[in-house]
């Protein structure tokens, strides 16, 4: 076989061509790895990424030929200012907004991170990962991504006052009960919060909650240095602003002359023995809960809760 015949055979041999393509891809990948720029997030930048990954963020595989993963998150138009804040905080890591997505470039850093927090394409919470989540910026992005500030009301007819009760919920529905308990324990230990597990009908059936005004204010104070520059998120970070947006509804529901107050965790005074005795006596006589509240100068819900306690204790 002469030289021309050998060349012709090589060009037509599928096995040879397939192996050559494999070698080309292999060499390209090695070249890409050698020429990939370093990605070294600061401690604070990592905390933003970590909190976001437990919230709206996720890690995806790059293009078909890419060997690395990248970070991305999708957002609605009403949260664009918040994502611009993230983009600014992470700009030297080449995070950019495109349409309604915030994305990073593909990089070995995110490939390594993907192996830490995913198992069979499902997010998981490992102790090693949580141990790295220690800065209020982690709490900030976790809350702003997946949290909500809600207000419930009680009306004191005698005082003509509507008391507003703030609650914070973090919608960690993608995690199991065990993982949620692990997260709550970590947050409470690290940030001195008091998250509890609450059942719900969606996802994996559990989420995290702060039920007391003092607990809500503690969290909002922790993240305030980082959220003060995101005015579009004040409905989540400022209880007074949240209530102000609901004033019209409150006045329509109760009356336009009511006074609106934020319920303080210290406002609820303890029941004295004489009050408890009178409460039991009135209830046994068939007096309504609202009438008992009026007689004892208590709120309706205070009476409801106390009666529940007394029933559990076998006193009613």
Describe what you observe in this structure:
With 316 residues, this protein is of the alpha+beta class. It folds into three domains: 43-124, Endonuclease I-creI, CATH 3.10.28; 140-262, Homing endonucleases (Endonuclease I-creI); 273-312. It has helices spanning 3-12, 14-35, 43-53, 80-89, 108-117, 127-130, 136-146, 177-191, 213-227, 234-237, 239-244, 247-253, 273-284, 289-296, 300-312; strands spanning 58-61, 69-74, 96-98, 101-103, 118-119, 122-123, 147-156, 161-170, 196-199, 206-210, 259-262. Strands 7, 8, 9, 10 and 11 form a five-stranded mixed β-sheet that branches. A four-stranded antiparallel β-sheet has the order 1-2-4-3, covered by helices on one side. Strands 5-6 form a two-stranded antiparallel sheet. Helix 3 runs parallel beside helix 7, helix 7 (136-146) crosses helix 9 and helix 14 crosses helix 15. The model has no long low-confidence stretch (mean pLDDT 89).
Note the topology.
Elements: H1 3-12, H2 14-35, H3 43-53, E1 58-61, E2 69-74, H4 80-89, E3 96-98, E4 101-103, H5 108-117, E5 118-119, E6 122-123, H6 127-130, H7 136-146, E7 147-156, E8 161-170, H8 177-191, E9 196-199, E10 206-210, H9 213-227, H10 234-237, H11 239-244, H12 247-253, E11 259-262, H13 273-284, H14 289-296, H15 300-312
Parallel strand pairs: 8-11
Antiparallel strand pairs: 1-2, 2-4, 3-4, 5-6, 7-8, 8-10, 9-10
Helix pairs in contact: 3-7, 7-9, 14-15
CATH fold annotation of the largest domain: Endonuclease I-creI
Q: Which regions contain 5 or more consecutive residues with pLDDT less than 50? A: none
- Note the overall shape: elongated
Protein structure class: alpha+beta
Please give the domain count. Answer: 3
Query: What is the CATH level 1 assignment of the largest domain?
Result: Alpha Beta
CATH homologous superfamily identity of the largest domain: Homing endonucleases
User: What is the string of SSEs from the N terminus onward?
Assistant: HHHEEHEEHEEHHEEHEEHHHHEHHH
Q: What Rg is obtained from the alpha carbons, in whole angstroms?
A: 29 Å
Overall pLDDT confidence: 89
What percent of residues adopt helix (DSSP H or I)? Answer: 40-55%
Distance between the termini: 106 Å
Q: What percentage of amino acids are in beta strands? A: 15-25%
């Amino acid at each position: 076989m002469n030289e021309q015949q050998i060349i012709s055979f090589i060009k037509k041999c599928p096995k040879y061509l397939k192996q050559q393509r494999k070698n080309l891809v292999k060499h390209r990948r090695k070249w890409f790895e050698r020429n990939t720029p370093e990605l070294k997030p600061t401690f604070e930048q990592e905390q933003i990424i970590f909190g976001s990954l437990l919230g709206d963020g996720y890690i995806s595989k790059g293009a078909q030929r890419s060997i690395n993963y990248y970070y991305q998150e999708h957002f609605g138009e009403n949260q664009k200012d918040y994502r611009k804040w993230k983009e600014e905080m992470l700009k030297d890591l080449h995070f950019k907004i495109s349409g309604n997505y915030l994305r990073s470039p593909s990089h070995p850093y995110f490939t390594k991170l993907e192996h830490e927090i995913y198992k069979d394409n499902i997010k998981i919470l490992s102790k090693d990962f949580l141990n790295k989540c220690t800065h209020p910026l982690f709490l900030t992005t976790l809350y702003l991504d997946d949290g909500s500030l809600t207000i419930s009301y009680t009306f004191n007819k005698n005082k003509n006052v509507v008391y507003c009760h703030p609650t914070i919920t973090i919608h960690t529905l993608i995690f199991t009960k065990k993982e949620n308990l692990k997260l709550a324990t970590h947050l409470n230990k690290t940030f001195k919060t008091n998250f509890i597990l609450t059942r719900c009908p969606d996802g994996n059936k559990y989420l995290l909650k702060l039920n007391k005004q003092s607990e809500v204010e503690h969290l909002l104070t922790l993240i305030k240095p980082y959220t003060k520059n995101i005015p579009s998120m004040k409905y989540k970070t400022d209880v007074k602003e949240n209530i102000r947006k609901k004033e019209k509804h409150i006045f329509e529901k109760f009356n336009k002359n009511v006074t609106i107050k934020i319920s303080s965790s210290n406002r609820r005074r303890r029941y004295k023995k004489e009050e408890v005795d009178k409460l039991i006596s009135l209830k046994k006589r068939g007096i309504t809960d609202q009438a008992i509240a009026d007689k004892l100068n208590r709120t309706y819900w205070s009476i409801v809760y106390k009666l529940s306690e007394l029933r559990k204790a076998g006193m009613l």
